[in-house]
Design goal:
The complex is a heterodimer. Chain A is an alpha/beta fold. Chain A has 16 helices and 14 strands. Chain A folds into three domains: 8-49 and 86-202, Rossmann fold (3-Layer(aba) Sandwich); 56-82 and 207-388, Rossmann fold, CATH 3.40.50; 395-419. Chain A is 45% helix and 17% strand. In chain A, helix 2 packs across helix 4 and helix 4 runs parallel beside helix 5. Chain B is built from eleven helices and nine strands. Chain B has a nine-stranded parallel β-sheet. The interface between A and B is large, with 33 and 42 residues. Chain A: GO terms for molecular function: tryptophan synthase activity.
Amino acid sequence: MIRSENGYFGEFGGRYVPEILLPALTELETMFNELREDPSFWQEYVTLCQEFSGRPTPLTPLRRLSKELGGAQIWLKREDLNHSGAHKVNNVLGQGLLVQRMGKKRVIAETGAGQHGLATAIMAARLGLQATIYMGADDIERQYSNVFWMRQLGAEVVGVTTGARTLKEALDEALRDWAASVETTHYVLGTACGPAPFPELVSYFQSVISQEMREQALTQMGQLPDEVVACVGGGSNAMGAFAAFLDDKDVGLVGVEAGGLSFKEGEHSIRLLPDTAEPGIAQGYKTLFLQNDDGQLGDTHSIAAGLDYVGVSPILAHLTQTGRVTPESATDTEVTEAFKLLMKTEGIIPALESSHGLAGGFKRAKTMRPDQHLVINLSGRGDKDIFNIARAFPQPEWPEFLKREAERSQELVDAAKENR
Amino acid sequence: MFPKQNDRLQVMSHAVVGFPTLEENEKAIAGLVDSGVKLIELQVPFSDPVADGHTLVNACYEALKTGGSVKATLELCAKVSKQHPDASFILMSYLNPLYRYGLEQLFRDAAAAGFKGMIIPDMPVEQFEPFMPLLDELGLAPILMVTPNTSDERVARIAKSARGMVYVVSRMGVTGKQTQWGEEFHAYVKRIRQHTDLPLAIGFGVRAADDLKALTGTAEVAAFCSKYIEWQRDSGSDVAAQKMKTLLTDAELS
């Protein structure tokens, strides 16, 4: 597993936060440094993942699709089969163990697509904690089904109406809450970003993905994969998929970012490719941020709310700089094509975030030999994001159904009012 | 210049550069100086101001639309520090705009523009330490923040690099909400005094004349910022200056 030097990975990382947050971060760092030297803690974590989230997740060969594309053998690491439907729950369960040790009774989280918020709400319900989830007002509209479930699970969901109303603003707002509540509240940061120790801590928990993948590859392929591909938003599923292979120089590691509509400013979320993001220090850490010459963080776009973020994991920024990780991007159109292809050829419904990994992976697989193996980390499933997916694939019967359903829901609400 | 320890309380107030417009900033600052305010923070607007509450967050967003930037802040300071030689101007910014500008160049240009000090909430003392010889040479004071949960060991480290005054964050949280000035607060101020002879500026939650009265005799400076920006937002810079004058009279500080 990669280790920081005092919170830094090369020039990236660090801890640039208002003084008020420092004690909690150093407390967390001390606890994390002790726990990760204790093998029984990792065992406790893996057992929890097994009991609660169905780990290990399978490594699924895509036989029909591989044949159709005519290149490498493609495999999917099935993080979509986690409880809650995405890899986000791994990190959340791990941080839940930390919360229990700290004795804090409240958790807060930022969320983009809502997957991390949902996972946090699930963990809070299970451990009897109070949860407040910050989510950009625009993301709430994009991912309302996750909001619905978070509220049903007992979490408070706060819509953030400042700025571009997406993940960046949700993270700012969570930091503001934490500044006021840090003595009783743990901030469950959802990705491998933010001030130290979060990038390292989140990667540590997510590394369960590549640890399993490694063993499964040796058993099922009889070798390590030639390439591992993952989509990159903040970078937690990519770090999870890459972590155990960092020292295996023959395993190519490819991160696929959201190419959005075009390379134009504000129309994508690409940070790792040249001429996109620049080094900056914001939201508590140093990394490559999309920003203007005045250091104002930029606007981003992606068809997938979970990739719509202005910064990127400092670990991935570093690994890209050293050449260990190869950055790629996929446009919104390529992503919807890959989504359809997987669904129709293999019967698996991917999340739009993960479909970036698919688009990038399929492209690369075509250029490889049939005796080579490529694993794509399928970070989440798409069937639960039906509203969002329906928007990506417009068809007349869906809005017609929604109208009828809206009428039925309204009748139920009205009837309930009358009975009261 | 900065007050000395045990000087009578004075108010430090605020401008967000570009809010409501760059022209209005000059007028507002003149109004503040006329009202008797001698310490004024000029805040570089930022897209992600994590230590600020909604008043200043929204002012930042507005200011970015009207051309607020690091460059505009330096230009504004060059003007107003000449216009108001009795007042001291303090650069307030989040780190990234300054980092993008280049920190060393920024420090030099800030000093040349007439800034006397800087408040950078997300730049920890460790990051300031290598720049201390340069900052002392330039006479540009890092006004470092301490918070109620800062350990004694860390307060000592912060006090070592702090110049001008120490910014005492009065409570947990962000700017723009009320603070209680109880026994706990006084014990906290006493604890900070043990580490420094610099004057103390109290910030976060100073919103009315009663707050200023409560702080008179306890601290040398009170940061009256969010509430002033609310006045400016709701009633314009002239009325805001008038209210500032009334505030200082009511607090018996004029």
